[in-house]
Amino acid sequence: MKILKIILYVVVLLLVMIIGVVAWLFSDSGNRFLKNKITEIANKEAPIGLEFTHFKLDFGSYAFVITDNADSKIALSGEFDIFLNTKAKLNAIVTDLSPYESLLGMKLNGGLSFNGDIVKDSSNIDVKAELLAFNSVINADVSMVDYKPSRLFVNSKDGINIASLLYFLNQKQYATGQILLNADMDISNLQAPSGGFNIASQAIRPNVALLESDFGVSLPKDAIKLAIQGEAKNSANGGIIVSNILASSSYLNIDSKGLTLSLNDNSTNGVINASLQKIKASGFSLKDKLGLALTLKSDKINNQQALISINVITNPILVHIEMPNYAPKNIVLSGENLSLKEILHFASLPYDAKGNINFGSTISNINTTNMSYKIQANVKSNIESLVFDELNLADNNYFNADINGDSKKIQANISSNLFDSKMEAKANLENYAPTFANINLKNLNLQKLAKLLNYNANGFLDANVNIDDFTKLNGKFDISSKQINITKSTLNSLSGMEFKKDISFKLDGSGKFNNGSGNGEIDINGDSIALSLNDIVADINSNTYGVNFKFHTPKVEDINPLKMNLNGKLSLSGKAGLRDNIPYASLQNNDFGTLNVDFENEKLKLVGENLDVKKLADFSGNGKIIKGGKLDMLANLDIKSKDMLKNLNGNVLLRGEKLELYSIDIDALANSFDSATNINLYDIGAMVVAGPLGFVATKGGSIGKNLGGMIEGKTAIRELNADFNLKNGVMHTSDVAFSTGKTRIAALGAINLNTESFQNFSIGLLDDKNCAKYEQKISGTLSNPKFEVTKSTIENALSVAASLFDKIKKGSGDILRKPKEQSNENCTPFYRGVVK
What we know:
With about 850 residues, the protein is of the alpha+beta class. The protein folds into 5 domains: about 1-120, no CATH class; about 135-310, no CATH class; about 320-380 and about 395-400, no CATH class; about 410-570, no CATH class; about 585-820, no CATH class. Helix 1 (about 1-25) packs across helix 2 (about 30-45). The chain is elongated and about 125 Å long. The N and C termini lie far apart (about 150 Å).
């Protein structure tokens, strides 16, 4: 009995201690202890600044509020009984999920809120919650029996916003639309649940512009319909989930067959079939449907495998991927007896072909952490024929390639006898940068190569390029051809110009480089062209490149790519290149006098001395109009590579003497200005702006139409001066005039080269006091000028008309003033320049 009393005392003591501890925990000091201890443990496990801003634990009730560094709040409150049954409310507002990135292992944008009711009755728990996130509402109901999961119900009545979900998952807005989610499953056995789920959308709309900019993939604007039906079942090996996937649009169809996920070992088996059409990628467009069959096969979680069969032609292209732990480890690509004809048809290339291609590639030992791998690949092709535009480009030829190496170093060997040639090429790459390359090409048939690219050329080419060390740019090259002919259509297509004839020439070139610098030369010689490129220098260390050149053609009309009607010989010499990516050039010509052009540091200087105008006229096809004279030219301009016209500044001066013009008598034209009402000073004043060639520009234009051939003859221009200042692409006249001895015409104002328009521009026919007898204001554009007849012009026309018809009546003096040339003693001079 004594022992029982002792035991009873001990039990009572323990009960008193427990009751005391419990009572203390419910006190303020006990609450503080619990609060601090829980906070310490929580922040040790999750260092995100968790803190209880409210902590109250009483007999039968509790209320807690937790915050984090981002002022997110989680509130839990409710009541409980002695058996710890409870009814509680959980409210959470997480404003920013970024602090939880380290815990979740992924970056999430934005926040979420959570409202729910938790009911615990004995060993049964029921949680009903409403999740608000990514502009969507998801309702969930989870039941537990004997503390084990029993039932799961999930529903998104109004759908899940795809764009917001993508943003939430830290992805770009690649699609918009709504996804409906519904799941009702018995999860009392997590290894073998039962029930089903549905995911569906009537209209997922891809962001076409974003997909094209990010991935180069162009899609129609059609929406995609999606339906995923899943069913959880029991099997002999445990629980499985069998799903069917259907997705459709005008350019996409996907369906799955027997896609099964084993919950026992997380293995995946099944087939997903897809077909694509109307899709463009990097400029390539699918001509026919592209079929894909993705077969998933695995026996356990650490041995996932996928086999992709790509059906673009009769024989498939196969891709086998081994993915232990869902990370790619080995990839094998292969294609056997692929029809060359079918491949070209699929690529929409207009060739008729016979032959086949075989290839195999193995990428092994893949490590996605440091992106290392080993690679072995080969391509073997037999090209029986390749016909384009009735020309057979191949005749039982081959093209073979072998690639071996790893992520650090790759070797490639290529051999071919296409286009009647023998080609051998070798290259080494280290860290994806070339270190060595050798190309040896013999007897390349340019006609067949050009025809393959839809161009026209003839000739055979030999070339050898050997670069021993790319890092130091050590190497040499040789290139030669006995005769190359390029048709004018090909020249025009490549250059965007207008060549008039085919060009034929012989080609020789060679060069040698060492330690990043070296020199070479290339000579092009033909009946109509001789081009010598000497001292070709390149120094990658100082970023300097240059070449000296000499050019000559006995008949420029044979190689002229411009619309101008040029004739005769032309010789040019000089140099050009780059220094720190800034171009420079120097050019000399002595065919028409002395002409030097220098461009360096974005400054252009042009000096032309004693230029023979007759030779220039003959060269430009205007020898019948301009017969003689001399010109001097000087230009100093600042030319920027960006917004060239807007940043064009400097001055231009053109001086001419004893210029002879035929087919036009400017003096007679000026004297008859009163009666020729359709004649504009602009017609003859064009010469003031651009010199004698300015007059040539009006040939067949307004002068010819207005004169009707009435005023013909010749003109001797005694003196011409065209001095312009340029500021931000606007040419301002400084001293612009010319004189025949009897007639003097000048120009004032500006021409805006940016807009090709006149600004406050006038042309005046001068008297001996530098005043304008006639003045014409010009506005509009260079291609469509508009003329304004000034008051002085009207007065003179009326005076002359009155004199001619002898109808001056009393009082007419009040209406018709004297001609301006008779009353200009006090006139304001129109011109104050050097031309007398």
